[in-house]
Structures are given as structure tokens and as C-alpha cells.
Amino acid sequence: MNYIWDVMLSSKLKGIDPNGIRFVPAEDYSPYMELSLEDLNQREIEQIVEVNPYYRFYSIFKELFLPDDEEDYELRENLFDILIHFLGTIDLYQGMNKREYYIRFLSRDIRNGVFGDRIASSFNDLDRQEQDKICEGLLMVYETGELIHFLKQTMSKIFKKSIIYANCEEKNELLIYMGQEKTEHANSKVELILELFLPLHFTIEIYWSHHFGILEEEATMRMEGIALY
Predict the structure, then answer these.
(1) Which end of the chain is less crowded, N or C, counting CB atoms within 10 A of the terminal residue's CB?
(2) Whole-angstrom distance, CA of residue 18 vs CA of residue 2
(3) pLDDT at position 226, please?
(4) Ramachandran area for residue 72 (φ above 0: left; ψ -120 to 50: alpha; else beta)
(5) Would the pTM count as exceeding 0.70?
(6) Radius of gyration of the chain from Cα atoms?
(7) pLDDT on residue 122
(8) Sign of torsion, CA 25 29 32 33?
(9) Over the chain (229 residues), what is each successive 10-residue block's mean pLDDT?
């Protein structure tokens, strides 16, 4: 990590609240680096991070920590922490395009219960990457109206071994093979995706670890490994 946005981005990816990190002005620092870390290859997020405020923000901080000014140091240190958080947040937004903003807004709405409390609860149990994949899929649904296609795509992004078969000749039915054991957490994710993407007139059958048999598909016709349809 080299910059304050590195720290804030890493904390978000690891599910750590960036507001719990305290940025303090470094006493000893390199003039060529923004963070003052003992280990230059450090990957773990420390609760207190020392920052060289003059590396990129000299014009902002040049008067805040003058060497002979010892008055109200605690107040100035708190102000420093707030300003660095603010500047780090601006750093993160500067790298985003219009589409990423839409995904962030959609993610915020789901977390805040706009889609219902149950969906908000399940969504908050996902990690950041899984939340982004679901929001990307929803955004594409809004743009194209293709629910089934993006249900398949989103499911395969979250569950790499999943396969979805559509039976639309006799009835509107989806057969979903997950390719893994059923767990409470995995089932919660499946229910979340189906609630967000499944059209109302479709029914579903879910197969977890055993695939239903398909004629002439040897991989699905193994003895004691076939689910009944």
C-alpha cells in the first residue's frame, strides 16, 4: 500500500469499515511516499495509519502542523483524520465511471431496504465482490429487460459450477444445478438471486450436489449420483 486510497479500498474489500481507521500525521516519513509504514510490503490494515500529509496535499496541510505550534494539537489531529478520510473518499470516486456510480447507488438502495428488509439482510451477508456482481446483473436487466439471461449470468458468477436449464416448451420452468453441497449461506444467496431476477410466471427446481439424468450425457448418468426429475 502506497496511498491513503489504497488503505481505504483494501479495507472495503476486506469488509472493514474505513471509518474505524485513524489517520495520524507521521513524525518520521519519506518525502517520496504518502504512507509511513514500517513494512513497505504491508498488506494488513492497521487501525492507526501514519501519513505524510505533504506528499500530495502540501497546500492543505502546510499551516496545520507548524513545528513551533503546540496549541490545540489534539483538535488539529482530529481535523487531520477527518480531512484525510474525506480526501481518500474523493480519491476513490475519481477512478469511477458513470456505470460504477449506478452500481454504487443500486447497492446502497438494496442495503437500505428499498427492495425489502429480507433482501437487504441477505445482501448485507455477501462480500463486496458478490454484491457488485448482483448489482451489475440488475443494472443490465433495467437496460435490456432480459431477466432470464442475466439470472443465468449472475448465478454463474456467484456459483461457478451452476448450470441453468430453461424448459419453456411445456411450461415456464427453470432447472438449476448448483454443483455443490447445500449450506444455509449458499441457499440464502440462491434465494436472494431468485427474488431479484426470477420472473413471476416461472417455477424452479433446484438440484444441489446431484445432477438430474440427461439421456446420452454420461456425466449426468452415474449410478447413485442421479437426482430425479
Answers:
(1) C
(2) 16
(3) 62
(4) left
(5) no
(6) 25
(7) 95
(8) negative
(9) 85 85 89 81 82 90 77 86 92 81 92 94 92 94 91 93 83 88 94 94 88 66 64
End-to-end CA, the chain:
52
**pLDDT value at position 123?**
95
Residues 6+ apart with CB under 8 A from 156: 162, 163, 164
- 145 phi and psi angles, rounded to 5 deg: 80, 5
Please tell me the predicted confidence (pLDDT) of residue 112: 93
Cβ partners under 8 Å of residue 142, min gap 6: none
- What's the Cα-to-Cα distance from 148 to each of 64, 85, 140, 197, 199, rounded to whole Å? 57, 41, 11, 7, 8
Q: What is the rounded distance in angstroms from the CA atom of residue 4 to the CA atom of residue 81?
A: 11
23, 46 in Cβ contact below 8 A? no
Which amino acid is present at 74?
E
Single-letter residue type at 187? N
CA distances from 121 to 24, 68, 92, 143, 159 (A): 35, 52, 26, 26, 20
Residue type, 19: N
DSSP secondary structure of the chain = --SHHHHHHHHHHTT--GGG-EEEE-SS--TT-SB--SSTT--SPPSEEEE-TTTT-HHHHTTTT-TT--TTHHHHHHHHHHHHHHHHHHHHHHT--HHHHHHHHHHHHHHTTTT-HHHHHHHHTS-HHHHHHHHHHHHHHHHH--HHHHHHHHHHHHSTT-EEEEE-SSS-EEEEE--S---HHHHHHHHHHHHHH--TT-EEEEESSSEEP-TT-GGG--TT-EE--
C-alpha cell at 186: 449458499
